[in-house]
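Subject: Interface between my chains keeps coming out wrong

I've been trying for a while to get a sensible model of this assembly. When I model each chain on its own everything looks fine, but I need the whole thing in one frame so I can look at the contacts. Pasting all components below, labels as-is. Any help appreciated, I'm running out of ideas.
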Amino acid sequence: MSDPHKNVVGDYQHGIEVMNRLWGKGVTEQLRSIWKKASPDVERYITAFAMGEIWSRPVLDLKTRSLLCLAAAVALEREDQVRLHTQGALQSGATPAEVIETMIHLMIYAGFPAAWQAMVIASKVISEHEVTKGK
Amino acid sequence: MSDPHKNVVGDYQHGIEVMNRLWGKGVTEQLRSIWKKASPDVERYITAFAMGEIWSRPVLDLKTRSLLCLAAAVALEREDQVRLHTQGALQSGATPAEVIETMIHLMIYAGFPAAWQAMVIASKVISEHEVTKGK
Amino acid sequence: MSDPHKNVVGDYQHGIEVMNRLWGKGVTEQLRSIWKKASPDVERYITAFAMGEIWSRPVLDLKTRSLLCLAAAVALEREDQVRLHTQGALQSGATPAEVIETMIHLMIYAGFPAAWQAMVIASKVISEHEVTKGK
Amino acid sequence: MSDPHKNVVGDYQHGIEVMNRLWGKGVTEQLRSIWKKASPDVERYITAFAMGEIWSRPVLDLKTRSLLCLAAAVALEREDQVRLHTQGALQSGATPAEVIETMIHLMIYAGFPAAWQAMVIASKVISEHEVTKGK
Amino acid sequence: MSDPHKNVVGDYQHGIEVMNRLWGKGVTEQLRSIWKKASPDVERYITAFAMGEIWSRPVLDLKTRSLLCLAAAVALEREDQVRLHTQGALQSGATPAEVIETMIHLMIYAGFPAAWQAMVIASKVISEHEVTKGK
Amino acid sequence: MSDPHKNVVGDYQHGIEVMNRLWGKGVTEQLRSIWKKASPDVERYITAFAMGEIWSRPVLDLKTRSLLCLAAAVALEREDQVRLHTQGALQSGATPAEVIETMIHLMIYAGFPAAWQAMVIASKVISEHEVTKGK
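Reply #2:
Try treating it as a single job with all components included. I did that and got this:
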């Protein structure tokens, strides 16, 4: 987390480390390359600020942050975010049951269809994750 | 959680217990009375299904469920829900820092204005909670 | 409904009639005056197009259209719209039970909090409507 | 609808009957199997509570409930829900014109793009439905 | 813009001209044919009212209106609208940098994922546009 | 805008200057004090990153950025944002007509009620602004 006396925020190098821990080097490189192609500044903003500042704060660990992201992704019906944060949740110590439970909990807040469509996506990510781990 | 062989779901009595634990008897009675006035069936649905079934499931504890609700409340910009689930989070063991951190994390997903308006509301609930505890 | 061979759409005079039928002359004049103050063109667009064209179409009657508006108002959490279309629904033949039932139905689609907050608003409009009728 | 003196809600068997009436046995089995794969509890919640309790209530018939779902699906831009509830509306007695009219009515509330994209999807379902009926 | 003394709004012929200027004749014909298939009235409403009235108003030019549409498309996460209004923005004089900048600006309001997914889509449209121009 | 070779982003001092230009010193101090009370880090993030980085970028000027914010505020139905960015738009050179026109343009995208409610709010800000200027 950045120094309260400084004029600037974020930490690009730390942002890359957090992404590697959450999604692995492959996915991280792929995401950064997509962002860079859209705009090199945007890649810097997401890496330095979103990942190197916000995600790097204390108080809540990576697993809890991933579950919070899943809750937001269900509420806002963002399918790619469901996919990404299911991966991050599993990688940072959440069990498949905790991922699915997050979505079951959201049924009553985001509507049943938003929740079950997220579950269908998460289930696929969970299966792939288990195949990869089994190897 | 209801028996998988039964034709029915929910547990009204258990729902009331969960609400008492989350929000205290005063708020619980007030909420149930608002719901009943709108529709007695709706009071039953929320108490038996939302609280007595979904919130009563294992895998995630009341604190985590409250933080997930806060994430959804920020994402969907539901002010009354920010208020209610801040109370529930504090009552079920979350620190004020964890509540605010949940909203800081949401800045990059729900937009800065959605997050800081939720923080303003949560800060008031936190102050009141600390005054009450101090007595 | 406008003639398919014409270059134009809408019917301002008919729009005023539809509003009078839905909300009474008092509310209609109040709404039109609010719209005119924001922009005279906007008052014309809402009156001629929204009310004089869309609401004036055949196939669905005013009661069904009001219930559809209520469903959208719950889904999009628009409190003023819940108020307005509850009035219109009651005025065009919906029973209070049908208004509340619309919101109960929406619980599973828009989330429980969106639905019960709409019910609280609708209940007040229903009470006022019954007092007015009783006089 | 469940007994107000009972501790529980929902009716699983009745939920299956309602789904069969709305979407036919084939679609119903397909949906239940998708839900079960995501989580067997979720299949029970949707079947017993959403379908066996909410959809099984009196006051509004299946056709009206399907049109309300379409209004919500347009407002929340849920394409799969547009598809499903167009099928249900047609199956429970709505004419193709009523389905399309619901979306035309929503133009002014959910925005023109949300409405016409729903119409494109609904038109395809309507064509398929007519081909099937013609056989 | 329609005459304030008339009972009607919109201008169908002018709407077609505005669309031709924004998106070219090919895309315009394709869109109108999609709308007509869904409902001939809807094609008239969009062409005469949305394009021939709203888009034809003075005060803001076509470029600014296209950028405003992009802001709304990012905020509401409407991918087809991002595509369409990127085309219109470029065609009416916006530079590729202005289109991308609109989305960078939206990051802090609509959430980072909504903005970068829109950028990915807009980048493709920009590339295709440059290839076409280069020919 | 921050240097592409640096590990950090944002510019706190510049952020304050941009806010002063957009909203005046009084509103700026009030906002920063609200943010600080919620969380000192959040005040730094908004000031340094949102204002000192994103709003400080070239390509689009402060007036255009304010109008884009208004489009997003209408689309997401954020009343406080309508208020704030109407002030900023007027302060950075937009005419009252351009502010209202932005909302008229949004009618067909965000729905008529979202647009006219924003217009009511903006009209009040415009009147107050003109009174202040007249003094």
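Reply #3:
Confirming on my end. The interface with chain C takes residues 77, 100, 104, 107, 111-117, 119-120, 122-123 of chain F (CB under 8 Å).
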